[in-house]
């Protein structure tokens, strides 16, 4: 028979302090600063804008947990375990765990997992008073994290369907609605030398994308516009692309976004929905944890092609082309009725 965990194990599993302490250390770049010589609390407090007495408690707790060591003279250093909090570690977790990082921020909402269990809604709004995407796009602290999301590694979740299966030869201008920091649009423009593109996203993402287009020499073919897809979208596109957008929104909101695309596309334009389907197979190790995380961070990680078509129908769009469906993504073209 499997051994039952004792009470101490359960309390340790439910501990919130240590995860919060590690994430605070990652955000404050404690490991890097210790490595660069700020190895006593007073220096470190100055550099991190924290109170030395409280920072010392944090460091001592991390010593207790084996993340740091403290010498007899009071100076702190990073252990092998803590080394992954350094930015230059080959398997660095610093940016991933930082509270002003894209994943770190998403994780923090898990403290109100109960909200998701009760309502089915993602927990970020309940914890922070505004949605995840508004937070990372309106708070200047997240610009760096968006800058760091390098162009190519961002291309995931079957994004190649967009490049490989759709007939881009006939398209003059694509509007990438919610295009993040430009990875997909840049890849499309590299592959389609005659194509022009407009990216629309909230402030931080659009500004990062604009800088990226200029740096990549695409300034004459790509522009980034700050705007919300709940407001009227720029006119003049032949195709309005929604890649991995709808999963972040409820049915009602998804229909509103599709309607904005339909209005901007007009009768001659198309709306191309390249939606992700983040179904987690039950047999996948850790599937329950992964699925709970997804449900706590986005409202609809899984919609079937038929469900996407129904939402589009409600927004006045009829299907005019259907690409392949993979385990993670579908691609559907619609035309305003
Ligand atoms: C899951 S990401 C998808 C990014 C990209 N389209 C892709 O396929 O990789 C969702 C994007 O929607 C953007 N977004 C969220 N709310 C928005 C809004 N109201 N208006 C415009 N963009 C928004 C986010 O900033 C983010 O870039």
Automatic annotation (TrEMBL):
Ranges for domain O-methyltransferase dimerisation come to: 16-85
Q: Does the keyword Membrane apply?
A: no
Residues annotated as domain O-methyltransferase C-terminal: 116-317
Q: Which Gene Ontology MF annotations are present?
A: methyltransferase activity
- State the superkingdom: Bacteria
**This protein's UniProt keywords:** Methyltransferase, S-adenosyl-L-methionine, Transferase
Mind telling me which CDD domains this protein's record contains? AdoMet_MTases
**Gene Ontology biological process terms from the UniProt entry:** methylation
What's the protein called, per UniProt? Methyltransferase
């Amino acid at each position: 028979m499997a051994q039952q965990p004792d009470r101490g194990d359960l309390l340790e599993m439910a501990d919130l302090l240590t995860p919060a302490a590690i994430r605070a250390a990652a955000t404050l770049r404690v490991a890097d600063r210790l490595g660069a010589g700020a190895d006593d609390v007073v220096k470190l407090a100055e550099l991190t804008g924290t109170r030395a007495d409280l920072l010392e408690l944090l460091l001592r707790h991390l010593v207790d947990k084996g993340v740091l060591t403290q010498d007899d003279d009071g100076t702190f250093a990073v252990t092998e375990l803590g080394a992954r909090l350094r930015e230059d570690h080959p398997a660095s977790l610093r940016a991933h765990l930082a509270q002003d990082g894209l994943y770190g921020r998403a994780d923090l909402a898990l403290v109100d997992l109960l909200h998701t269990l009760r309502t089915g809604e993602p927990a970020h709004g309940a914890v922070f008073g505004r949605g995840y995407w508004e937070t990372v796009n309106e708070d200047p602290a997240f610009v760096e994290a968006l800058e760091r999301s390098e162009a190519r590694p961002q291309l995931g979740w079957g994004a190649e369907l967009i490049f490989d299966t759709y007939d881009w030869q006939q398209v003059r201008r694509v509007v990438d609605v919610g295009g993040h920091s430009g990875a997909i649009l840049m890849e499309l423009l590299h592959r389609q030398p005659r194509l022009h593109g407009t990216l629309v996203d909230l402030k931080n993402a659009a500004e990062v994308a604009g800088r990226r287009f200029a740096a990549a020499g695409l300034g004459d073919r790509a522009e980034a516009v700050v705007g919300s897809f709940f407001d009227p979208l720029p006119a003049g596109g032949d195709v309005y692309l929604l890649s991995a957008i709808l999963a972040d929104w409820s049915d009602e909101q998804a229909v509103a976004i599709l309607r904005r695309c339909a209005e901007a596309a007009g009768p001659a334009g198309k709306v191309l929905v390249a939606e992700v389907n983040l179904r987690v197979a039950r047999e996948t190790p850790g599937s329950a944890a992964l699925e709970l995380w997804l449900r706590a961070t986005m409202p609809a990680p899984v919609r079937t092609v038929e469900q996407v078509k129904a939402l589009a129908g409600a927004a006045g769009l009829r299907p005019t082309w259907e690409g392949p469906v993979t385990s993670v993504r579908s691609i559907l073209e619609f035309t305003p009725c």
